[in-house]
Amino acid sequence: MKQVYSVPKSLQPRSTHYCPGCTHGIVHKLVAEAIDDLEIRDRAIGVAPVGCAVFAYDYFDCDFQQAAHGRAPAVATGIKRAVPDSVVFTYQGDGDLASIGAAEIVHAAMRGERITVIFVNNAIYGMTGGQMAPTTLVGQKATTAPFGRQKEHCGSPLRISEMLATIPGAAYIARVALSSPGNVAKAKTAIRKAFETQLAGEGFALVECLSTCPTNWGMAPYEAMQWLEENMIPYYPLGEFRTPEGGAE
Amino acid sequence: MTKVVFDEEKCKGCGLCVQFCPKKAIIMAERINTKGYHPAVLADEENCISCGICARMCPDAVIEVFKP
Ligand SMILES: Cc1ncc(C[n+]2csc(CCOP(=O)(O)OP(=O)(O)O)c2C)c(N)n1
Ligand code: SF4
Ligand code: SF4
Ligand code: SF4
Question: Among the CATH numbers 3.30.200.20, 3.90.550.10, 3.40.605.10, 3.40.50.970, which is that of A24-248?
């Protein structure tokens, strides 16, 4: 029989600590598939965040470093500049990237650092138990917003992709969703492109992956994917916001 | 050899493969694995079209798919 789907080689053959149905696992597979397809495992260096993905270094079969909360783009900058031949990627949640690490990501994009950023936006702080993130939707409940996020005193959620797409050094910025087989296929293409952007030396690349946190959202995994489609996608539209063809300035 | 192979001990019983299979060919087993989850199993080999959707949606890299 012909093999139609095999487990990516750039993943370690072990179980993860992620909750059942958490889309972190799907993102891990897509990143590993891109590394396999582009044959860059020997050159790939990942930077793990603080958040549920803190142990990513145990799950990928390539070199890895772990950064302080939100500082992965700064660590990746240092690695890429010291070892220009390496293919460097960060893997960051929305608490890590959009909250405590907001400055690092903006300035890495401004400098046009040749790194690839995998940004997992699940609209909540997963690891610490479901607090409100800068990306939590208006009305969405969190442990620190028991009545739902209120715009009057918390403001409106940050659209990171749109914001970074205004920065001249950003070469590739896209938003995808891990919510259906079709959207996962599109996410695979975008993540591969974000690595190709780095390989071509074109500048900063980021893929925002709309994701679920079934545990802290209080939903079953499938229900969480439907909630994502019905609530997150209308506020966070999918697509490419900047491409190398469009021209990094 | 079956069309869909499950690394049963890695399964967390999340049910995403069951929900997304276009042929409704997967079910959760009665037994539990060493993690304590009911693992997913292929119940309807005949109707499986080897599309790979179950494997693509599985967060835990449990599934590999083969086409005759
Ligand atoms: C300097 C510092 N501040 C705060 C924390 C607590 N903390 C750990 S993870 C986290 C946020 C995680 O959320 P996110 O980045 O969205 O990742 P997720 O767990 O949802 O994948 C916070 C605030 C910390 N570890 N270090
Ligand atoms: S807490 Fe949420 S983000 Fe973290 S592993 Fe569980 S489901 Fe995933
Ligand atoms: S390969 Fe397709 S048809 Fe077969 S079990 Fe998986 S999802 Fe269902
Ligand atoms: S999607 Fe994967 S982990 Fe979830 S039930 Fe199916 S095989 Fe098990």
Answer: 3.40.50.970
Q: How far apart are CA A23 and CA A82, in angstroms?
A: 32
| All domains in chain B, ordered by first residue | 4-65 (3.30.70.20)
Q: How far is CA A231 from the centre of its chain?
A: 19
Q: Which residues contact A219 (CB under 8 A, 6 or more apart)?
A: A212, A227
Atom of ligand 3 nearest to the CA of B55: 6
Q: Over the stretch A145-154, which tens digit does the pLDDT of each residue have?
A: 999 999 999 9
When pLDDT is averaged across residues A65-83 and rounded to a whole number, the result is 98
Distance CA(A120)–CA(A176), nearest Å, equals: 10
Q: Is A215 on the interface with B (CB under 8 A)?
A: no
Q: Report which protein residue has its CA nearest ligand 4's atom 2.
A: B58
Structural domain boundaries of chain A? 24-248
Amino acid letter at B11? C
d(CA A88, CA A106): 17
| Ligand closest in space to the Cα of B42 | 3
Taken in order A145, A165, B59, B25, the sign of the CA dihedral is positive
Q: Is A34 helix (H, G, I), strand (E, B) or coil?
A: helix
Mean pLDDT confidence for B18-38? 98
Convert the pLDDT of each residue in A161-219 to its tens digit.
Answer: 999 999 999 999 999 999 999 999 999 999 999 999 999 999 999 999 999 999 999 99
Q: Mean pLDDT across the stretch A219-238? A: 98
Asked if A8's CB is within 8 angstroms of B15's CB, the reply is: no
Who contacts A74 (Cβ-Cβ below 8 Å, separation ≥6)? Answer: A67, A104, A108
ipTM above 0.95, yes or no: yes
Asked if the Cβ–Cβ distance from A21 to B16 is below 8 Å, we say: yes
Could you give the percent of chain A with pLDDT greater than 70?
A: 99
